[in-house]
Amino acid sequence: MFSKEESAQLRKEFWTSFGKSFPRKWLLYNTKIKGFAFKFQADRKKASVCLDIEHPEDIHNELLYDQMLSLKVLLETEIPEVIFDATFELEESKKIIHRIYVPFEGKFSVHNKNTWRDCFEFYVETMPKFELFFYEYEDFIRQSVS
């Protein structure tokens, strides 16, 4: 069992190590669509690459998610393991968001450095697929909230 401080230090080390091992400018929050962001997720039990839709205006939130649902078959062609979750609960805040994500299927814990490398490789393999998909359909996605 790790103390809060040890756990925080390991999380910081995990993300620093990822950034140094795979230096690259990721799209992440730079979609220029409010409440529409790509994220790397990692905790004690799992890791994933995510697209979180959490626009502050409910109607825009729903429109963005519906627009992504209309692209679901195309996204599944590029990333067959993608999961659409209309009611994903964020662990810390208990907030419900729309999340489209790909889970890392290997053994992983941010507390176990031996699992980091496989996770990093998963991130580097998966996130570019999400980014390319976004760039290809960005105009279509954006029109749902413009």
Automatic annotation (TrEMBL):
Superkingdom of this protein's organism: Bacteria
Pfam families referenced in this protein's UniProt entry, alphabetically: DUF4268
Residue ranges annotated for the DUF4268 domain, each copy included: 10-137
Name recorded for this polypeptide: DUF4268 domain-containing protein
